[in-house]
Amino acid sequence: MGNINAAADLSVEGNIGIITLDSPPVNALGADVRDGLAGAVDKAVADPAVEAIVLICAGRTFIAGADISEFGKPPRGIGLHEVQAKIENAPKPVVAAIHGTALGGGLEVALTAHYRVAVPSAKLGLPEVKLGLLPGAGGTQRLPRIVGAAKALDMVTSGTPIGAKAALETGLVDELAPEGELRSAAVAFAQKIVAEKRPLKKVRDLEVKGGSPELFAEFRKANARKFRGFEAPEANIKCIEAASGLPFDEGMKRERELFMGLMTGVQSAAQRYVFFAERQAAKIPNLPEGTATRPINKVGVIGAGTMGGGISMNFLSAGIPVTIVEMKQDALDRGTGIIRKNYENTAAKGKLTAEGVERNMGLLTASMSLDDLADCDLVIEAVFEQMDIKKEVFGKLDRIAKPGAILASNTSYLNVDEIAAATSRPQDVVGLHFFSPANVMRLLEVVRGARTAPDVLATAMEVAKKIGKVAVVAGVCFGFIGNRMLSSRQREANKLILEGAMPWDVDRVLYDFGFPMGPFQMADLAGLDIGWSKEKSRGETLRDRLCEIDRRGQKNGAGFYDYDEKRNRTPSPLVEKMILDFAAEKGIARRAISDEEIVERCIYPMINEGAKVLDEGMAYRGSDIDIVWINGYGWPVYRGGPMFYGDTVGLQTVLDRLNHYRATQGDDFAPSPLLEKLAAEGGKLSQYAAK
């Protein structure tokens, strides 16, 4: 039969027609794949020698989903629903043969086949919710008809794929094929169907099991916190409800309505933007193509505290040996003990085996001597955030580390160029700003110093990927990208509580905006005494005064809030009085402050600071800034990051409000020249790339 088009081929083996899709890299459902698949089904149906059809894919995967590069573009070729109808209504049995992943549209195509065969390593899922969408090609209507309402709810709202063995147990897959023998096993399965005269099993004709009103009510309640602020999970739930209570065609109409509502909304646009922005962040402009990286076979970490231990775990988990150094034995023992305890806790949750715990711990060497770092390829300093201490450490490392070793600082604010100047090899120095807890948080700010060598930067980005981090390159400035922007939010939050709001007002508004917690709750969680010195404190800030009366946050049951023994917080009357007294002492007349003002004064200065970061070339792209804030600071992904949010609000609106507050609050609100320029031109911060 031969090729149908560049993406599809039809061959006949005995009485079985075999349609092979081959559209690298992942057989996405672009126009060529859809056209080829439709044409191949038509030909196989028309051939009297073909009694059953096997659909299989070349390359490393089955159909991995929609071609999202087509989103927002004029339609081309046959529509996916028409292709699915051809498969589902074929008068001959169609068997989908699955390897790799069958995700999104890929699984939706497989669900229109009459049977499904998969290799044990295959993964099947509907991940559209992660892009702020729902499966728009019948996935929410067919899936619950096979796996039941409860399992379908879990799959569509989490977006997490299931393995082939689990799929077999739920009925999503009819048979498992041995690894490497999918084609022959699928053909044999199709021949068995023909020989046994099995019926054409249309998923659309099955009944949904377990779709009671109580199931949906309980599911919503159990997941309310996780789904907070997101529109897509609720739309997915409504679709499964429709599948449970409506005929198939009516359920399809409901799915389409809800899909279009999400597709044209801001949240999905934001989540799709973030999907691409994360990949873009890994690309470094002006880095010579093909820059060789340095081998990183052994890592040294200086400091076994919370950060040093967390940083070490990233490498141990990736199978890279680590030597961790502390000055005192008790601190070293405590640090390595916490690493072991963290791994054991992971094992207790079933996410790591006991052997895995020992394997990881076996890669760790504990030492009290910097000399033991002499054979490390990468050394990361995670000591106290004080310039003189860091320079002293790097001066020693310069004498100890082997030639070509990369020397990295985990500083969150300090000048990496000044730290590099303490060595005779500034080209080997880079900032690696991990976020706490470092073994959990995805973000890594890679700080490129003025003299950081290209291969050092390339190696840092490669290592970040190896240890599962999302890396963003930042330039050298106080606080880099994330903390620099955070400082503007903190400044305004602290001013707002003196002017008329209370900490719990600010926290509530920012929580409702989508953050996991507000700035004062976060401060209590971290500890108000971080960086505070009892000897130097003069009661100049509210935080100083809280620490002076031993209100240090959650850890001792009192900070901005009062805490009970379970760390549940309540507004503190004492803190309220302290705020009123402090404001009176400073001569600040208090007034009513609206929720809208809290949002504008906390968020708009961040947008403005991000524009300054871009203007100064401290970030390569506006989208890089958004990736920092989503992965390191809990910015709600459905708002796309501060730069995307500024574009959503409208840069002219942001500019007008900044000028409004500048008139009453002063030059803290002075607009960035770049913001003014883009607002005038109708440009977008999220699309801006530094020249």
Automatic annotation (TrEMBL):
It comes from the Bacteria. It catalyses: a (3S)-3-hydroxyacyl-CoA + NAD(+) = a 3-oxoacyl-CoA + NADH + H(+). The keyword Glycoprotein does not apply. SUPFAM superfamilies: 6-phosphogluconate dehydrogenase C-terminal domain-like, ClpP/crotonase, NAD(P)-binding Rossmann-fold domains. Pathway: Lipid metabolism; fatty acid beta-oxidation. It is found in: Peroxisome. Residues 298-474 form the 3-hydroxyacyl-CoA dehydrogenase NAD binding domain. Gene3D superfamilies: 1.10.1040.50, 2-enoyl-CoA Hydratase, Chain A, domain 1 (3.90.226.10), NAD(P)-binding Rossmann-like Domain (3.40.50.720). Residues 479-563, 598-682 form the 3-hydroxyacyl-CoA dehydrogenase C-terminal domain. Keywords: Fatty acid metabolism, Isomerase, Lipid degradation, Lipid metabolism, Lyase, Multifunctional enzyme, NAD, Oxidoreductase, Peroxisome. Pfam families: 3HCDH, 3HCDH_N, ECH_1. The keyword NAD applies. In the N-terminal section; belongs to the enoyl-CoA hydratase/isomerase family. Monomer. PANTHER family: 3-HYDROXYACYL-COA DEHYROGENASE (PTHR23309), PEROXISOMAL BIFUNCTIONAL ENZYME (PTHR23309:SF49). This is 3-hydroxyacyl-CoA dehydrogenase NAD-binding domain-containing protein. The lineage of its organism: Bacteria, Pseudomonadati, Pseudomonadota, Alphaproteobacteria, Sphingomonadales.
